[in-house]
Amino acid sequence: MLNKIVIFGVGLIGGSFARALKHAGAVRTVVGMGRSAASLARARELGIIDVVGGDMAEAMRGADLVLLAAPVAQTEAILGALAPHLQPGTVVTDAGSTKSDVVAAARRALGAKLAQFVPGHPIAGRETNGPDAAIIDLYIGKKTVLTPLDENASADVERVAAAWQACGAIIHRLTPEEHDKVFAAVSHLPHLLAYALVDDIANKPHADLLFQYAASGFRDFTRIAGSSPEMWRDISLANQAALLVELDAYMAQLTALRARLAAADGAAIEAVYANAQRARRQWIEAIETAETPQPKDSAE
What we know:
NAD+ binding; disordered C terminus; oxidoreductase; Preph/Arog_dehydrog; 9 strands
């Protein structure tokens, strides 16, 4: 049981974290902090938070856990503001989609208190934003990646892990560098591609006609282009080096596929499609297996 948690950013990620912990009976008081008074008021109205935080010292007093669920570019400013009020025994974590930059920001902002910061990233989300998007079951069966620092105490890492587990998440651990390389490929690049495709269509002179006939395939491929542009701008820039590596590899793949199309090489095109289909099926099966609740042992 956490007596008090403070959440910076009470939208989809932070709000769902609060709702899940409340639903699990794992927290007594949730304090919400953020830039938007309207969002904080709405979160209070919805019962996501118990207190709208104002004064930083008061918000941080007696907190067991602090979650940063704001865009990653705000990390250093938030940590710098809370650092003077960070008491012994309080653990800070984040939900940022990049980790190397977040760790660097934490080192600059927290200094001697760095050990109290345990980086994290819940692998769950939707394209909707704000407190009204927060749901109780967002994290059930989903991965949360922790990237602990050498300075972290094991008990502090376990406190963060336990909070996410109370939300229904499955804990994984990577180094910050491993994390950023992985997510450049499977998250950041897909978002870049979705935004690029919709922007390309929208800028065509006959965009209205094209969107009129866009159906489920286009909707499914571009769903994530409905996500927050501010957040994904920050993520793209924060993970620039790894994202550029993946983007270059993808452009090479497109160039090779274009050559096969220009040569009308149906067999080669089909081989690419078949390999992709096979890999996707295996991936979906692995996800479904991992997310299926295991039966509990029955008492004799």
